[in-house]
Design a protein that fits this description.
By secondary structure, the protein is mostly helical. Among the domains are: 69 residues, no CATH class; 50 residues; 93 residues, Serine Threonine Protein Phosphatase 5, Tetratricopeptide repeat. It contains 22 helices and no strands. The two termini are 40 Å apart.
C-alpha cells in the first residue's frame, strides 16, 4: 500500500510538472511565421507597384485598383491571424495563475476523488480490468456504485450527491442525474458550475429547451460569475428560444471576447449574433469586420476602409463575373463579416474553382450550415465532394462527423472524427473538442443498444 501511494505521488507530480512547464516557459519566436512571410511579400509587391507608378508605367487609377487587390489578398492570407499575447498580464487568467491553479488543484482533486471513490482493494483489480477490454467502463461503473453505496449510508452529503449527479449526467443516465441534483439541495445554489450543469441537464430532459427553470438557474449562475463562458452561451440560447433576440445578442456579445479570436467557437458566436440581430431587426454588429492586418503591412487600413474595399470588389465582380478567384476572396470576406447570405451567394459563383478546391467546398458547407444550424442536405454534399478530393482534409472530416452525428449515424461520426485526430497537430485546440464529441457519440451508441 505504501509503495502504491509513493508511486501515485511521483506520477502525480510528474503530470503536474508536464502540464505546468509550458505555461511557465517564456514563449519564443524563432520560427518563420507564414503571416510574417505573407506580410513581407505584400510589402515587396506594394513597393514594386509604387515604383511602377513613379516611373509612369501604370496609371493612378490602375495603381489604386491593384493596391486594393493586394490588400484584400493579404486579408485572405491573414484571416486566422492572432496577435501574440504580450508577456505581461492581459487579464485575470494569466499563464502563471493558470499554472498555479493546475499545480494546486490537480493533486488535491486526485486525492479527493480517491478518498471519495477509491478503495485499497481496487488496486488488486487492475490486472483483471486490463485483461478485460471493457474493464475501464466496468471500473467506472463500480466506482459510481461505490459512491451510491456510501451515499445511501450517509445521505447527508450534498457534495457527494452533486458528484454523483455529474457522473450520471456524463454517463447519459439523465433521470438519475436529476434525482441526484435534487438530493444535493441548496448546495448547488452557491456554485455557478453546478447550476450550469443542472440547467443543461434539465434542458436536455425538456427536449433541448432552456426556457423556464433552466434559464432561472443560468441567471443565478451569472449573478455569481457574470463572465462564465458556458453560462453566457446557454443564456443566449435560452433568450433566443424565448424569442428575446436582443437578450440573446447581449449575452453572446459579452461571450465573444472570452473565446479565442479567429477560432471556430468565435466564428460560431459571431454567426449566432448576426442571426439574432437579424431576427431582432437590429443593424449588423460593428464588430463583424475583417480580421486585423499587421500594422506595418497596410498602414491606414481602418475598418471603414476595409468595408469600402470589399464593396468595391463586389462592384468590380459584377462587371467581371468570370473572376472566380475574386468571388472566392469576396465570399471569405463576407463570411468573416458575418454576412452569411452574401457569402453563400459569392461561394456559389466560384464555378469550376469550387469543384477542385476542398477548402472552398468546406467553407461553403460551413457557411450554409451556420445559416441553417444544420449540416443536412447541401452542406453534406459539399463536404463529401471535399473528402473525395482530399480524404484527410481536417475541416471536411470534422464537418462530416457532425453531419453523421446529426443524422444519428454515430459510428460514421466516430470514424470521421478519429481520422481527423490522425491529421490534426497535437497542439490544435480542436483536438480536445473532437475527443469529447467522440466520447459523447460512443455513449449514445451504447444507450441505443
Amino acid at each position: 500500500m505504501n509503495l502504491f501511494i509513493g508511486i501515485a505521488a511521483v506520477l502525480t507530480l510528474l503530470v503536474v510538472a508536464w502540464m505546468v512547464y509550458p505555461l511557465l516557459r517564456k514563449p519564443t519566436d524563432d520560427g518563420v511565421s507564414s503571416n510574417k512571410l505573407n506580410t513581407a511579400i505584400h510589402r515587396d509587391q506594394l513597393h514594386a507597384l509604387e515604383t511602377d507608378l513613379a516611373r509612369g508605367v501604370i496609371s493612378k487609377q490602375d495603381f489604386e485598383t491593384t493596391r486594393e487587390e493586394l490588400q484584400l489578398r493579404l486579408l485572405d492570407d491573414t484571416e486566422s491571424y492572432e496577435a501574440p499575447a504580450a508577456s505581461g498580464s492581459t487579464g485575470f487568467w494569466t499563464q502563471q495563475r493558470t499554472a498555479m491553479v493546475i499545480g494546486v488543484s490537480l493533486p488535491v482533486l486526485a486525492l479527493g476523488l480517491y478518498l471519495q471513490l477509491g478503495t485499497p482493494a481496487a488496486i488488486d483489480r487492475i490486472a483483471t480490468a486490463s485483461a478485460n477490454p471493457h474493464g475501464g467502463e466496468e471500473q467506472i461503473k463500480q466506482m459510481v456504485e461505490s459512491l451510491v453505496t456510501k451515499l445511501k449510508a450517509n445521505p447527508d452529503n450534498p457534495s457527494g450527491w452533486a458528484m454523483l449527479a455529474r457522473s450520471y449526467k456524463a454517463m447519459g443516465r439523465y433521470e438519475e442525474a436529476r434525482e441526484a441534483f435534487e438530493k444535493a439541495g441548496v448546495f448547488i445554489t452557491g456554485n455557478p458550475d453546478l447550476l450550469i450543469d443542472n440547467a443543461e441537464l434539465l434542458g436536455i430532459l425538456a427536449g433541448n429547451n432552456l426556457t423556464g427553470k433552466p434559464q432561472q438557474m443560468i441567471d443565478a449562475a451569472l449573478r455569481m460569475n457574470p463572465e462564465h463562458p458556458m453560462g453566457l452561451m446557454m443564456a443566449g440560447v435560452a433568450s433566443y428560444q424565448a424569442g428575446d433576440f436582443k437578450g440573446a445578442v447581449t449575452r453572446w456579445e459579452k461571450l465573444l471576447p472570452l473565446v479565442a479570436p479567429g477560432s471556430q467557437d468565435a466564428e460560431q458566436v459571431q454567426a449566432n449574433i448576426a442571426n439574432a440581430r437579424e431576427k431582432a431587426g437590429m443593424p449588423a454588429a460593428a464588430s463583424n469586420l475583417l480580421p486585423p492586418v499587421p500594422a506595418d503591412a497596410a498602414a491606414g487600413m481602418t475598418p471603414e476602409k476595409i468595408n469600402q474595399m470589399v464593396d468595391r470588389l463586389a462592384a468590380r465582380l459584377k462587371e467581371n463575373p468570370d473572376d472566380l478567384a475574386g468571388w472566392a476572396r469576396l465570399a471569405r470576406a463576407y463570411r468573416v463579416q458575418g454576412r452569411l447570405d452574401e457569402a453563400a451567394s459569392a461561394y456559389a459563383k466560384t464555378g469550376k474553382l469550387l469543384d477542385t478546391d476542398p477548402d472552398l467546398l468546406t467553407q461553403y458547407a460551413d457557411t450554409l450550415a451556420m445559416k441553417a444550424s444544420n449540416l443536412q442536405g447541401k452542406p453534406t454534399e459539399l463536404v463529401n465532394k471535399a473528402l473525395a478530393i482530399a480524404p484527410k482534409h481536417p475541416m471536411a472530416l470534422m464537418l462530416a462527423g457532425q453531419a453523421a452525428y446529426q443524422g444519428g449515424k454515430y459510428a460514421v461520426a466516430i470514424r470521421h472524427w478519429e481520422t481527423a485526430l490522425t491529421v490534426l497537430p497535437a497542439s490544435s485546440p480542436d483536438v480536445a473538442q473532437i475527443s469529447a464529441e467522440i466520447a459523447d457519440a460512443k455513449l449514445k451508441m451504447g444507450n441505443a443498444k
